[in-house]
Amino acid sequence: MSNTRLTLFFTNIFQLLDSKIQNYSINFPIKILLLLLGFFIATVLATVFGQTGDWDVLVAGILVAMIEILGNKMYSKKYISKKQVFDISFLSLIGINYIKIGLIFGLFVDAFKLGS
User: Fold this and answer.
1) Which residues of 26-59 are buried (b: 16+ CB within 10 A; e: fewer)?
2) Contact 38, 106 (CB under 8 A)
3) Where is the major localization of this protein?
4) Of 51, 89, 102, 115, which is most buried, counting CB atoms within 10 Å of its CB?
């Protein structure tokens, strides 16, 4: 195959996509497990505390505060500047962030279930 600009362009695009896919596939099963754990926690919280109706506002306030504090920690300059692959505190923050994403998604889906 000749090395035209078009073939070089597509070769570079495919190499970039391959490197991105391999980068995201690291610990993929653990990430999915943490997302599902967050989804399960959201379902449990909505079911248990939603039965009485008295605790809804308090639990929602605690969850929003927890999500905001975690987001502040996750995206602060301290952690962004020293993203090291083997830093235990950063890896645990990433894991908790995946649980947080699952929690938000679970509450979002539960709100749609209640609305229909």
Assistant:
1) eeeeebeebbebbbebbbebbeebeeeeeeeeee
2) yes
3) plastid
4) 102
Q: Between the CA of residue 95 and those of 7, 38, 66, what are the distances in Å?
A: 40, 10, 15
Written as six digits, the tokens of 7 are 């073939």
> CA 37, CA 112: separation in Å to the nearest integer?
19
Model confidence pTM above 0.85 = no
Q: Which candidate, 97, 109, 107, 108, places its Cα nearest to that of 49?
A: 107
Residue 77: CB atoms within 10 A of its CB come to 7
The domain spans of the chain are 27-115
